[in-house]
Backbone:
């Protein structure tokens, strides 16, 4: 079935109140739903009430206390249609269903994970619990009573505030929760189990004391302390940055080990993948810490952007997701180094969203149609959605942006809103018209800007000519020109910023050029010397830039741009150009040529003690194999890409071996481990140096020594990576792997690093490694984290191993996807997107990949999730 944005219609009935009673049993849980149903004004009594279901078993049905006759309704596992309705416009409907949480392997609805009952209802999981108007524009006030075994489930949680708890005999007890805030069904949550917890409290600006708790597996309580700290910082930050306060007496977080996504923002009861809660120095890397901080913040921020104001329908998903990602980005930027955070965001966007935009799965930030909504929780909706919000701030400036946000909250609190509502708030706050800008929500694809420059020494003018273009994407052939905000600077030969006397031809506000037409030229006057332009500072728009800037100017920018993002962009452009030239030479049977200038430049930046170590680490880390492939765009031979990259690594490593070794020693950890950004930056730089030094030295000794000397997971995992990726067959690699397994073999979440580390070992041998690891006792295709750590990492982060020229890895992947699809379609569909760029491979691999996709397309009993992805991928 195809769902279309333009088909939206409000429901005939509303459900202002929902009372749920859960009698929890592992295999037979009874759910009694008592709904206050309201017929909307003007709706005829002959209109049936049609409720959504999914694999439900109806036990009984009554209206206003009287059981419904068999002729009064029609029930199937996925639909309940009631025709025998009372005349009153308001009545009570009682539905009893029976469900089996243990058998629920899709991890949608109510399921059991390691003995803990938990729920995931977004997007359409609530209908797997009871029949309901399971759509985001039906808001209801929930009261939930949970009855369960005292021994199996001492902890009983749901949304809102706790009302009552009590005893029900030898091994049963109950708890009642009430959430006063009307919410859509996708925000419902229940957790019941035997869990450990840590607690704390936060007092809001206006004096509400909120009890905070994080629930984890027994024995892991200490590993939740960092998440708690991040939560309190998030609560404070949302008050300071957006004036948003928390609105219940309690806020609970639960970590579970089987979870399809990162986490879920259920009102007052966030449920998390344990990966985004648990951390300590022993088991978590710096990037794990950063991920926890970001996801804790993200889910908390949803309380206002998502929960208080929710989405009218799922086409508006970016209304809550893009905006909330933007908010969590800003939070992390304020907690850490803004420039380093921004570069990390740009890298993520380019790595995940750009390929989506250029491939067969391209869709607008607000899609117009879908077959399976679960397949639209994408980098486009989330990350590009965030970039669009960032552009609104760039265009309006921070004050008007905040004014627009305030207006949005004021107007739509308690409502299910649309993108139009969101844009209107900014238009009204700023007195601006944003209809052209709104195309960012409608047109898929990454715009390309071609830019050329002209300095007129006699007239003292500097002109920049822009041409924007946007390629066709599925379902959209012709595109309109967009409003692209381009942050810029003009840099004089002395490295200082030049302030032009005037700008003609295009709108320029402060340091932003507003590109609106297909072709436009801006002419700056009063420019005494030929400047070097820095465009797209801060990565002010999600576009690609093809500029005519000469190499010397890029080198100049890499050295002197006052914007660190600009410096990094210039360096990356230079490195990418060099790497692509190397790929071409390798494919022609020649060795890559490596110029001394670029090698020197990298060494210079790394040695610059005035720069943040984290920034230097980013500069030292060459574009990855998939970055190079993406920039090449077509006819990719991953082996040649790796050869080119390795050659540049080696040249840099050999040229700077001495200073790199000294810096490596100087950066050694002193004192106790701290996950703060500055310490993490030093570790990042040191671990990047470790890779280069190991290459220069040509042996695994240094990495082995670091592995065994490390007192934290960041350094340990980095050393293990170098050993496995650079010295795969060596005894040192085997010894470190064995030591890791001996130490962390009892902890699957930590062992995920061990699985991914091996799955990403370059070269054809990785496939056998992955097959072996699938038989490991800790591995299970049923657990999403395990599957992603091994299969996901292999397919997305091992270019040479996955894209074997003989196509064997694709065949293995296909079979594995089909196996996963039988249990967990959402996970299978997500993993399958690893093949979305198959058309850009060289012909032999391309044909193997196509054949593998065809195998999936022709398999029987495909889920709608996988069917949708495979059909769109094949096009
Ligand atoms: N709203 C969640 C978040 O971004 C993601 C939930 C996605 N769930 C799903 N079944 N697709 O925080
Ligand atoms: Zn979200």
Residues:
């Amino acid at each position: 079935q195809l769902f279309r944005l333009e088909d939206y219609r409000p429901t005939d009935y509303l459900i202002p109140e929902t009372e749920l009673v859960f009698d929890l049993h592992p295999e037979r849980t009874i759910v009694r739903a008592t709904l206050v149903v309201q017929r909307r004004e003007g709706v005829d009594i002959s209109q049936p009430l049609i409720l959504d279901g999914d694999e439900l078993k109806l036990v009984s049905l009554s209206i206003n206390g009287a059981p419904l006759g068999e002729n009064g309704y029609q029930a199937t596992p996925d639909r309940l249609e009631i025709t025998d309705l009372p005349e009153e416009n308001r009545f009570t409907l009682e539905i009893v269903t029976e469900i089996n949480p243990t058998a629920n392997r899709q991890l949608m609805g109510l399921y059991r994970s390691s003995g803990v009952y938990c729920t995931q209802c977004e997007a359409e999981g609530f209908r797997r619990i009871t029949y309901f108007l399971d759509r985001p524009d039906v808001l209801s006030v929930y009261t939930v009573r949970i009855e369960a075994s005292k021994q199996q489930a001492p902890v009983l949680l749901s949304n809102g505030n706790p009302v009552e708890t009590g005893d029900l005999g030898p091994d049963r007890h109950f708890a009642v929760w009430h959430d006063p805030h009307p919410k859509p069904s996708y925000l419902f949550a229940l957790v019941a189990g035997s869990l450990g917890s840590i607690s704390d409290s936060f007092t809001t600006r206006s004096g509400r004391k909120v009890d905070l708790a994080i629930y984890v597996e027994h024995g892991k309580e200490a590993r939740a302390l960092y998440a708690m700290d991040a939560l309190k910082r998030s609560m404070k930050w949302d008050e300071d940055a957006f004036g948003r306060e928390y609105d219940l007496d309690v806020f609970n977080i639960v970590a579970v080990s089987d979870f399809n996504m990162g986490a879920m923002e259920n009102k007052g009861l966030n449920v998390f993948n344990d990966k985004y809660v648990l951390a300590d120095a022993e088991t978590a890397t710096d990037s794990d810490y950063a991920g926890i901080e970001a996801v804790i913040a993200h889910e908390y921020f949803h309380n206002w952007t998502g929960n208080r104001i929710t989405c009218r329908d799922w086409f508006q998903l970016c209304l809550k997701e893009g905006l909330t990602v933007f908010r969590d980005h800003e939070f992390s930027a304020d907690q850490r180094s803004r420039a380093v955070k921004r570069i990390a965001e740009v890298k993520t966007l380019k790595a995940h969203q750009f390929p989506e935009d250029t491939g067969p799965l391209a869709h607008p930030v607000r899609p117009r149609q879908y077959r399976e909504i679960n397949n639209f929780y994408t980098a486009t909706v989330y990350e590009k959605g965030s970039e669009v919000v960032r552009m609104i701030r760039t265009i309006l400036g921070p004050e008007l942006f905040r004014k627009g946000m305030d207006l949005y909250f004021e107007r739509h609190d308690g409502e299910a809103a649309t993108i139009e509502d969101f844009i209107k708030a900014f238009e009204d706050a700023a007195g601006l018209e944003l209809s052209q800008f709104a195309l960012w929500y409608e047109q898929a694809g990454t715009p390309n800007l071609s830019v050329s420059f002209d300095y007129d020494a006699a007239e003292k003018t500097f002109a920049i000519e822009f041409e924007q273009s946007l390629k066709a994407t599925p379902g959209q052939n012709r595109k309109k020109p967009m409003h692209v905000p381009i942050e810029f600077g003009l840099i004089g030969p002395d490295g200082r910023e030049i302030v032009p006397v005037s700008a003609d031809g295009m709108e320029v506000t402060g340091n932003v050029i507003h590109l609106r037409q297909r072709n436009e030229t801006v002419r700056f006057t009063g420019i005494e010397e030929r400047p070097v332009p820095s465009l797209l500072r801060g990565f002010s728009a999600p576009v690609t830039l093809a500029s005519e800037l000469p190499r010397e100017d890029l080198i100049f920018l890499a050295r002197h741009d006052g914007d660190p993002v600009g410096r990094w962009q210039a360096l990356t452009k230079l490195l990418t150009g060099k790497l692509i030239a190397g790929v071409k030479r390798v494919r022609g049977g020649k060795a890559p040529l490596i110029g001394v200038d670029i090698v020197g430049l990298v060494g210079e930046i790394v040695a610059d003690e005035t720069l943040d170590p984290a920034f230097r680490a980013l500069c030292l880390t060459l574009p990855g194999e998939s970055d190079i492939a993406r920039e090449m765009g077509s006819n990719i031979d991953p082996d040649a890409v790796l050869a080119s990259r390795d050659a540049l690594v080696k040249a840099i490593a050999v040229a700077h071996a001495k200073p790199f070794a000294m810096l490596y020693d100087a950066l050694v950890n002193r004192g106790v481990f701290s996950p703060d950004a500055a310490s993490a930056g030093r570790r990042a730089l040191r671990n990047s140096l470790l890779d280069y030094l190991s290459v220069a030295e040509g042996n695994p000794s240094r990495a082995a020594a670091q592995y065994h000397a490390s007192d934290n997971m960041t350094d340990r995992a980095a050393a293990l990576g170098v050993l496995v990726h650079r010295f795969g067959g060596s005894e040192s690699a085997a010894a470190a792997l064995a030591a890791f397994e001996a130490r962390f073999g009892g902890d699957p979440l930590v062992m995920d690093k061990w699985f991914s580390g091996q799955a990403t070992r370059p070269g054809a041998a990785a496939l056998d490694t992955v097959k072996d690891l699938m038989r490991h006792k800790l591995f299970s295709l049923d657990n999403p984290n395990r599957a992603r750590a091994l299969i996901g990492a292999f397919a997305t982060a091992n270019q040479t191993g996955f894209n074997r020229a003989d196509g064997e890895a694709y065949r293995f992947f296909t079979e594995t996807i089909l196996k996963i699809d039988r249990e967990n379609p959402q996970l299978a569909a997500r993993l399958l997107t690893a093949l979305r760029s198959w058309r850009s491979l060289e012909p032999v691999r391309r044909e193997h990949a196509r054949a593998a996709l065809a195998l999936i397309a022709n398999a029987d009993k495909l889920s709608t999730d996988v069917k949708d992805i495979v059909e769109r991928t094949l096009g």
In short: The chain has a mean pLDDT of 98. The CA atoms of residues 214 and 253 lie 5 Å apart. The longest helix spans residues 564-587.
